[in-house]
């Protein structure tokens, strides 16, 4: 499995799965994990992004708890373990590790300097925070959890942000979605799409709530967004 080591600001290093496109240098897309670690789903997403011309990597954000975690939602014990890890996860340190990843990849030999991120679930929340707390060139958040409590940070977002929201998300209730809509949709550099009739993690291939039509639509919007935001 192709891996690189990312220097942490306070030690490390921590590993990241990486997939390279046929032609380099190229823009970088940091794929931000769910609560399941760098599993096959995230590796597949990196490989797909690389096939579209990006340097794609997924850093191990659970390395401070237990390096190398790889779980799935279809096994009850693993799903419970994932929620346990989520409870232990330090968001502030996770953002610090993503900032370290951003800094490292901007100087990476296969990078052209342009860097974006795409996050799912926990990663969706972190993608929003990267948009608000770093100078990353573009961010995409799939069904991020807890963003309604962070809308006051929207004024810090100066680069493009794309958000995908599942209207039947069991972890983002309707009132939270309304808060997000009212606070963020008026911002000119933030685009939000709502997907009716689908639940959290609708774009997780083989996941319990996977919806092929909604995933296809969201992924196409993501591809168009990244192509525009990360083009030279």
Counting structural domains, the number is 1
In the CATH scheme, the class would be: Alpha Beta
Spatial strand order of the main sheet: 1-2-4-3-5-6-7-8
Average pLDDT, to the nearest integer? Answer: 96
Rg computed from alpha carbons, rounded to a whole number of angstroms = 16 Å
At a glance:
It is built from 6 helices and 8 strands. It has about 230 residues and is of the alpha/beta class.
Keywords:
232 residues, alpha/beta, Rossmann fold, eight-stranded mixed sheet, 8 strands, 36% helix, 23% strand
Task: Write up this protein.
The two termini are 30 Å apart. It is globular, with a radius of gyration of 16 Å. The chain has a single domain, classed as Rossmann fold (3-Layer(aba) Sandwich), CATH 3.40.50.1820. The protein has six helices and eight strands. It is of the alpha/beta class and 232 residues long. Strands 1-2-4-3-5-6-7-8 form an eight-stranded mixed beta sheet, with helices on both faces. The longest helix is centred in the last third of the chain and has 19 residues. Helix 3 packs across helix 4. Helix 5 links the parallel strand 7 and strand 8. The mean pLDDT is 96. It is 36% helix and 23% strand.
Chain-wise SSE layout:
Elements: E1 3-8, E2 11-19, E3 26-32, H1 40-51, E4 55-59, H2 76-88, H3 91-106, E5 111-120, H4 122-133, E6 138-142, E7 161-166, H5 174-184, E8 190-195, H6 212-230
Parallel strand pairs: 3-4, 3-5, 5-6, 6-7, 7-8
Antiparallel strand pairs: 1-2, 2-4
Helix pairs in contact: 3-4
């Amino acid at each position: 499995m192709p891996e690189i080591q990312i220097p942490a600001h306070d030690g490390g290093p921590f590993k990241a799965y990486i997939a390279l496109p046929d032609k380099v240098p190229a823009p970088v897309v940091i794929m931000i994990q769910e609560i399941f670690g760098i599993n096959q789903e995230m590796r597949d997403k990196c490989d797909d992004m690389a096939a579209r011309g990006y340097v794609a990597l997924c850093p191990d954000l659970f390395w401070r708890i237990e390096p190398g975690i790889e779980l799935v939602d279809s096994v009850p014990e693993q799903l419970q373990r994932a929620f346990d890890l989520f409870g232990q996860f330090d968001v502030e340190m996770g953002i610090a590790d993503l900032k370290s990843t951003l800094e490292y990849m901007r100087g990476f030999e296969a990078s052209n300097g342009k860097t974006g991120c795409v996050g799912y679930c926990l990663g969706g929340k972190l993608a929003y925070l990267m948009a608000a707390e770093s100078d990353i060139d573009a961010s995409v958040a799939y069904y991020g959890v807890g963003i309604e409590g962070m809308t006051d940070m929207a004024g810090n977002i100066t680069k493009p942000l794309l958000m995908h929201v599942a209207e039947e998300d069991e972890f983002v209730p309707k009132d939270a979605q309304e808060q997000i809509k009212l606070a963020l949709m008026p911002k000119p550099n933030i685009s939000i799409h709502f997907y009716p009739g689908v639940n959290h993690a609708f774009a997780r291939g083989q996941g319990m709530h996977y919806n092929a039509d909604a995933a296809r639509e969201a992924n196409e919007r993501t591809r168009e967004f990244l192509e525009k935001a990360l083009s030279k």
